Amino acid sequence: MENILSVRELSSDDIELIINYWTTADEAFLKGMGVELSKLPTKEQWRGMLSEQLSQSYEEKKAYCVIWQIDGKPVGHSNVNKIIFGEEAFMHLHLWNNHDRKHGAGVELVKKSLPYFFKNLKLKTLYCEPYALNLAPNKTLSKVGFRFINEYITTPGFLNFEQPVNRWELTSERFKELK
């Protein structure tokens, strides 16, 4: 029997799930994603950031998160930050448990997330800049239809160490073609 994949917006019930993902993840896994462990927020800081999202309109959001579900059970999330409403945002992909990875669900869950980002934030361009050495998100983005732009060295987010990243891009025009 095939699993039913779905996506929905973040709710207050999801906050602890996301906090647990970040605070209980294996250090080697986090480093493999490009995370600088010393930069991880506390549980209270996570709670504050995620709660703030719930109280803001789309136009005000600094970050926006959707929850990934398999058979109605939350298994991960995708979020965007560096949002310029009506213009662009940067996407991140997170399957919380190892047993949910490497089965192709990520590609379908990303595809199901895209309408939330493009429609609600009125984006013209969605970027994703995974750690170049983390193969899984790079393969996923290629399969979804993102266009590879370049590889360069940067500190891509507030959680990261300086690293090589691959910049991927999906324009609203290309997104409409993928539907």
Automatic annotation (TrEMBL):
PROSITE patterns linked: GNAT
Gene3D superfamilies: 3.40.630.30
InterPro entries in the cross-refs: Acyl_CoA_acyltransferase, GNAT_dom
Residues of the N-acetyltransferase domain: 5-166
MF terms (GO), sorted A to Z: acyltransferase activity, transferring groups other than amino-acyl groups
Protein name per its UniProtKB record: N-acetyltransferase domain-containing protein
